[in-house]
Amino acid sequence: MKTVFYMCLLLAGLHAFAYGQLTANHHNEHDPNEPNDHIHHSAEAAACLKLVPNNADFAFKFLNEVALEAPNKNIFFSPVSISAAFAMLAMGAKSVTKTQILEGLAFNLTEIQEQEIHEGFRNLMHMLSHPEGGVQLSMGNAIFLTEKMKPLKKFLDDVKPLYQVEVFATDFNSSIEAKKEINDYVEKKTQGKITNLVDEMDPQTIMLLASFVFFRGNWEKPFKPENTEEREFFVDAETTVKVPMMYQVGTFDLYFDKDLPCTVVRLHYSGSATVFLILPAKGKMKQLEQTLDKEKVKKWSDHLFRSKIQLYLPKFSVSGHYEITNILSKMGIVDVFTNQADLSGIAGVPELKVSKAFHKAALEVNERGSEAAEATSPKMMALTLAPVIEFNHPFLMLIFDRDTNSTLFIGKISNPTTTSTSEI
């Protein structure tokens, strides 16, 4: 019988959602008198670029699978967190198990070498953990391993520098203590945003992998709380709810995709993060979920234009808790969850498989922003006749890191008054 371990993929995200007017080259300007390590930064970014198309393909395939299993529900997850965790796991896999994991992550192994994948993730995680500007983001992994099974020195020597892994010896037989150790670690790393991750601890567990991402972003110009008012959000043809709707008049990046159809609004954080808010025409959400891919996002990016509008955006909190074993199996990552698993590169023994893989995510969207931005945000009364774009029915949000072109988070807001998704 295969011995099992559990994977817990975690995300905590806290958004201070506000928007500032940006000139076209605002985020690309650099004062030559200011010291920086842009040469090293550029080299890391170049290494990350090799992963961009594959990580994007995985992200949108995962969205499609989640949407099929949880139709009409809120969705929120971090594709880069899932990809990094399973790429790390692949370092301990062999044979068909390794191939399935890497190909399931959308890598074509005839076009990219395995070492390039791991080097790319190393640079990606380093850059994401050292963001520029007003974005706070940290990313890492931890392995909690029973003292009965010693990991191979080669495995630890390989994964520690590449995936920023911390390794802890844990007594899973003392379930209360083990649960506290893991929960305390996760709570600390996510700055208190994810608590009590583990409700019950199986004393037969021999290894638990936790992958975490913490994100907090401020906008250069926050929404003013006094402009937030209760308005209607149309969940579906039969359901309407009241939500606190934030409001701002300003110049935004827009695109109207007539083919789908949908409206795209792009907002920038003060640092390197960017948000695409995608509002499909009513009744077109399923079509958007099924057809969204990297080519469509690139088309939007290439055709954005600046326009003065009145923007309404719900104030909400959302969390996602997914048991993703079934989803990943549908995407081709099969053997690692069965008795056919070959994870002998981790501890030198064949009797090891992944029993369950969890992903937990949380997001808050509100008006908060930096104090300096608040002090310089005059009210633009002259624009009150500008066109209105109101996110008052289900919409998607894509959060990217511009430096690495990475898809950090994907969310679907079907009902802003529902704070959590059902576990799938």
UniProtKB/TrEMBL annotation:
Q: What is this protein called?
A: Alpha-1-antiproteinase 2-like
Q: Which UniProt keywords apply?
A: Glycoprotein, Protease inhibitor, Serine protease inhibitor, Signal
Matching SUPFAM superfamilies: Serpins
Family annotation (InterPro entries)? Serpin_CS (IPR023795), Serpin_dom (IPR023796), Serpin_fam (IPR000215), Serpin_sf (IPR036186), Serpin_sf_1 (IPR042178), Serpin_sf_2 (IPR042185)
Q: Which positions fall inside the Serpin domain?
A: 60-416
Q: Which residues form the signal peptide?
A: 1-20
Name the residues that span the membrane: none
- What Pfam families does UniProt report for this protein, alphabetically? Serpin
Q: Which SMART domains match?
A: SERPIN
Q: Name one GO cellular component term.
A: extracellular space
Stated family: Belongs to the serpin family.
Q: Does the keyword Nucleotide-binding apply?
A: no
Specify the superkingdom.
Eukaryota
